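Re-run requested by the PI after the first attempt was lost when the workstation crashed. Everything re-entered from the original request form. Ligand of interest: S-adenosylmethionine.
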Amino acid sequence: MTAPGFDPVKFKAGQRALWNSASEVWSDLPPEFAAGARLLDRELLRLSGLRRGQRVLDVACGTGDTALSAAQVVGDSGSVTGIDLASDMIAAARKRADDQPHVEFRVADADDVELAPGSYDVILSRWGLMFSADRPALFRRLRELLTDDGVLAAVTWGPDHRSPMMTLGGTVLAARLELPTPPPGAPGPSGMVDPEKIRTEFTGAGFSAVTVAEFMVPFSVSSPQRYAAFVRDMSPPMMQQMLQQRFGDAGDPATWQLVAAAAEPYVAADGTVQLPSSTNLIRAVR
Ligand SMILES: C[S@@+](CC[C@H](N)C(=O)[O-])C[C@H]1O[C@@H](n2cnc3c(N)ncnc32)[C@H](O)[C@@H]1O
């Protein structure tokens, strides 16, 4: 399902390096982004019907936001395991878990993880599944990890043109750095944008009662300049290094002015920038 010439080994090495370099940013998300991310956790917990005592797996858990929200619901009679391929993300998640005995974080590639079949009541994933190098195989494996009536609840970004919070800045940076455009459906932030395709993929992996609903995250920032600062804050160090190499300065004024300009059409009457962004809320039953 990936493009011809796709090299999974090279891809994984790149992903590890990228996400390790992003762990500081994801440990302390800009407040405007964190507010939207919290709304998604609320939706995921609601969709999954999570309750006290259940066993949860958080796939691509990053620094542990969703896993730690789930841990509060399941309490110490339940358990939460978070997995992520980036060891720096896991180190940050462990610090935040503060030795809660029912929460465990492991460095593991979801595409290659060995966990006991039938051992989770709920699988959660916020902005994680679309980075898989082999989604059909991953979804089949996740299904096997669930108990008989287990539920998966996950969220991915919607179509680029409906998700300006991430894509406005990303598009400017990609153009400035002349980065290649990934083919549709390739692993990455925009790898699972099409609801129909998502339904087909989960159903094809054997899941039942698959639903995909759009949820608009009401992102808002105070000004176009603040939007440019947000994009800069969220850009992983690797991206900043590329800007440095190309323009002699990661703070290259022309680049960041272009990012601010991209936000101008979204300025509301009160001067704030309104960037409601589309996400796909996915629910699937084993
Ligand atoms: C956009 S971040 C989201 C992190 C977290 N779920 C959150 O919402 O805060 C994507 C995460 O996916 C992880 N990731 C990417 N590919 C993965 C894989 N194959 N297995 C496990 N984790 C993966 C990255 O390391 C990164 O932490």
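Saved to the shared folder this time. Strands lie at 55-59, 79-84, 103-107, 120-126, 146-157, 208-221, 273-285.
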